[in-house]
Fold this protein.
Amino acid sequence: MKTSDFYYELPPELIAQTPLQRRDASRLLVLSRADGHTEHRMFRDLPDYLRPGDCLVMNDSRVLPARLLGRRLPGGGASEVLLLRDLGDDRWECLVRPGKKLRPGAVVDFGEGALRATVEAELDDGKRLVRFQYAGIFLEVLERLGEMPLPPYIKEKLADRERYQTVYSRAPGSAAAPTAGLHFTNELLDEIAARGVRLCYLTLHVGLGTFRPVKEENVLDHTMHAEFCMIPEETARVVNETRRGGGRVVAVGTTSCRTLESFARADGTLEAKSGWTDIFIYPGYRFQCIDALVTNFHLPESTLIMLVSALAGREQVLNAYREAVERRYRFFSFGDAMLIV
């Protein structure tokens, strides 16, 4: 299986640069797993495709304002530090720029002394081990000084940082948003619940590895990044009851899908659990837990388009993507959505 098997042509102007005024005003392409049939609706129509007895599983991770812009000490050269993973004791795994200037011992100041970062070690893939010094609570300092770490294909500045958070986000820790959830409003969730669909949540802290391209020619040679995830007791119970009752488990986003599939037993049931996952889902994978998926449109040759191809079939997915391009759908993080049923 070649990486190039998952390529499609995308005009650059279809990459959404800003969110729509209303979250649920995005378009929704509905793809049938059974025969590849497509329908073109609005995201607010999603409840029409859900049934009483189904459950909707969402990732409640909250994006950290993890991009810090500061000045090196001494000298004042501009520097950037991007937080990736909390290692404890005020130490983080980070990406830095300029890398040649930020070697072990380098110090960067943010907010005129409110926060300082000392590079302690070089890690693999150009990353750094960074120790932070501050007064007060780190997340509060970060909220004040940090910026949202938008994907590299978004060039426009985000006017409202909450638009890169889901309305149900509550567990800080992601370096990127679980973007399939950005389309939901509280009113839409209320409508879905009123139709007899159970809502539940898990947590997967999204790493920037989600944007890492697959460079290997053979898909099987790609090494997935690891991300931390948690399934609470209530979610495990709801999913298990849904399966026993004949309902469908509908995952919102590839992050929810990967978490459920990582921890599902062979019979598709779950137990409350937390840990790291580096699951790589590509065509040929046999899904244990999920029955349907709400997702966005993904980058060509990415692990995410491979995941949706595993669920709906590569040819059917690529045909749907070509149809979306022809109909001028908006792509990627702030773009339109897809429902695979």
